Amino acid sequence: MSKNLRFALPVILFVVMIVFLGFGLFSDPRERDSMALGKPLPPFELPDLYDSNRIYTPQDLTGDVTILNVWGVWCVTCAVELPYLTALREQYGVKFVGLYYDQDLDPDFGTKTLARVRNEVTSMLNRLGNPYQYQIFDVVRDYSLDLGVTGAPEHFLIDRKGHIRLHHIGDINERVWTHKIKPVYDQLIAENNSAVINE
Length: 199
What we know:
Elements: H1 3-26, E1 46-47, E2 55-56, E3 66-71, H2 76-92, E4 96-100, H3 114-128, E5 132-137, H4 142-147, E6 154-158, E7 164-169, H5 174-198
Parallel strand pairs: 3-4, 4-5
Antiparallel strand pairs: 1-2, 3-6, 6-7
């Protein structure tokens, strides 16, 4: 190895490391792209939170524009966004479906009963607003993992064919709705209305 290369190699490695760390330092982890973006919803068969006999599949999330909201009563940010989501449903007819999971049903976290989960959910929604048409119960969080969910709340904007068109990590507030979600939502609603007219 030449003398110049021995001196240059550590400098090159240092510059590469600085660039790599710089990207990590100045990137927003909430803006990462979902691997599910642009793809159909992964397959699932999951019960309704309140009626274990009612089983949902991806087919239930087709035919309309829907926002699938991953949430739980243990999530403080989820509680903060509930009134705003409820206002979007009431004022603009936005269709929200909850994908609910509870950490305390996992034996590693606790021993909460399903009845207690249902009572806690009902109590929170009665206090803060209920934006959901229905709640899919992600019993052991497998489906959240299939979607690439890292926490809650997370939101998946789904078109009428059941494809994920937008993924948002964090709460939906007025700023996020106006600048990030509403433009895509309005486009999908226009596509949906056009498809209905042409059918």
